[in-house]
Structures are given as C-alpha cells and as structure tokens.
Design goal:
single chain
Length: 74
C-alpha cells in the first residue's frame, strides 16, 4: 500500500520540509521508497519509514546547527 502524495507532502511539512518544496520532495521520496522496496525485497512502508527517519534526522540537525561530519558543512 502506497501513501497518497498529498498526505506524504503534509507529513514532510510536519517534519520540517519547506511547504513550497513538499510536493516535489514527496514525489521523489515515494519514488525512492519504491526503488528501495524492490531492491531490498522489503515492504514499501518499511522503505518509506526508513527514508522519513533519515530526512527527519537531517532537518533536526540543520535546525540545531549541527555539523555534518561527512561533508564538513553545517
């Protein structure tokens, strides 16, 4: 079962995504979750939850001003 893109966009806004980019990001996230599900042989929902968790961590780090060790940027 896939999530409606409008619902996904609203969820992304709730996690810190800029509203203006939420629809585009929702479409990209849905596409990547489908790819991961197929590649890893796991349910779409699991892949989507994993990706949402990564995005939430990224936005939380950005808001707190944490430095990304991998890229050396804030």
């Amino acid at each position: 079962m896939s999530m409606d893109l409008n619902e996904l966009a609203a969820l992304l806004v709730g996690l810190g995504c800029p509203r203006a980019k939420s629809a585009e990001m929702a479409a990209q996230l849905d596409k990547r979750a489908r790819q991961l599900a197929e590649q890893k042989g796991r349910p779409y929902e699991d892949a989507l939850a994993h990706l949402l968790g990564l995005m939430r961590q990224g936005w939380a780090a950005k808001e707190s001003g944490s430095v990304n060790v991998a890229s050396g940027s804030a």
